[in-house]
Every structure is written in structure tokens, then in C-alpha cells.
Amino acid sequence: MRNNNQTIVLGGGCFWCMEAIFNELEGIINVTAGYAGGFTRDPSYSDVCAGTTGHAEAISLEYDPEKISLEDILDVFFLTHDSTSLNRQGADVGTQYRSIILYTSEQQREQVDTFINRVRGDYDQPVVTEVKPLERFYTAEEYHQRYFERNQNLPYCRLVISPKLDKLRKLRKKAG
């Protein structure tokens, strides 16, 4: 049996939020928090937070395209972050929180471009999501992996991540 799984890297603010959201979806095989889109080799969390590495907090998604389409992934991505906000998501400010999609194939790039062109009219402001090929993904430190799952009662998780998950669940139930 062939493994047709694909990988795409998404940044939409804090990677803890993005990881928790995409861990909810059927067809997502693996979600890894990390750093991508910049120029510094082997960055640490403190390096990325300093805003000097060019990297965004991001998640690497391995998904089964027979169970979840890239379009469905992009739908969730655009519904759960502000793609019109440059270098910030809510109270998180800096280039490390920018909206970014890093594709791993030309087919993905075409699908992403088509998707963004289709949804541009849904927003009052321009979509500022950066789209570029993935050069390198750096896995974040272990304590960032499955952060929400392990820290649900911390204030940030309760006040920021839980409402995003509730929104996703309501949308899925409504569609469902």
C-alpha cells in the first residue's frame, strides 16, 4: 500500500493555537510545531521571539489527501486566524506571528494561489498571507509540542486557544 501523505507548513500566529486546531481534524496524520520561512539556521524559541531570524512560528502538517483535501485545510486555516493582519494575531505582535503558507510542491502552490484568489473578496482588507516554497522546517523544542493538550488549564490556553477550538467545533457541527 502506497503512502500518499503530503506535507504543508502553515503559520497563523501562535503555533500552540494552530497545532491544537489541526490536531482536531480527521485526515491530519501529524502536526509538529516549529519555525520556518526565515534565514537563521537552527533557531531557538528565544531567537524567533526576538524577531531577528525571519522565521514564523509555524506548524508542519502531514495529511492524507484521500481523507482531507488541501482546500479543507486552507478553509480551516483562513477561518481560524486573521489573514489580513500583517505581522500580528491578536495580542501576539511581530514577524514571527505573520500569516504564511509554505508549500512543498508546485501542485500545492497552484491550489493555494487558486484558494487565496477565490477568498480575497470575502475580506474588507487585503489578504497579506505570504506564500512561498518551504526551504526548511525547524522543529520547535519539545515543550512546545502538543502544548494545548498538556496545558489546557493555563490562562493562555483557556483564553486564546479554547475559544478558537470552540469556533472550529461549532463550524464543523453546523456543516456536519
UniProtKB/TrEMBL annotation:
Give the keywords, sorted: Oxidoreductase
Its recorded reaction(s) are: L-methionyl-[protein] + [thioredoxin]-disulfide + H2O = L-methionyl-(S)-S-oxide-[protein] + [thioredoxin]-dithiol; [thioredoxin]-disulfide + L-methionine + H2O = L-methionine (S)-S-oxide + [thioredoxin]-dithiol
Is DNA repair a UniProt keyword of this protein?
no
Peptide methionine sulphoxide reductase MsrA domain span: 7-157
Entries under InterPro entries matching the protein: Met_Sox_Rdtase_MsrA_dom, Met_Sox_Rdtase_MsrA_sf
According to the UniProt entry, its GO molecular function terms are: L-methionine:thioredoxin-disulfide S-oxidoreductase activity; peptide-methionine (S)-S-oxide reductase activity
Documented EC number(s) = 1.8.4.11
Q: Which domain of life is it from?
A: Bacteria
Q: Name one Pfam family in it.
A: PMSR
| Keyword Transcription regulation in record | no
Give the residue spans that cross the bilayer.
none
The entry assigns this protein to a family as follows:
Belongs to the MsrA Met sulfoxide reductase family.
What role does it play? Has an important function as a repair enzyme for proteins that have been inactivated by oxidation. Catalyzes the reversible oxidation-reduction of methionine sulfoxide in proteins to methionine.
Q: Which NCBIfam families match?
A: msrA
Q: What is this protein called?
A: Peptide methionine sulfoxide reductase MsrA
- Please name the source species: Candidatus Solincola sediminis
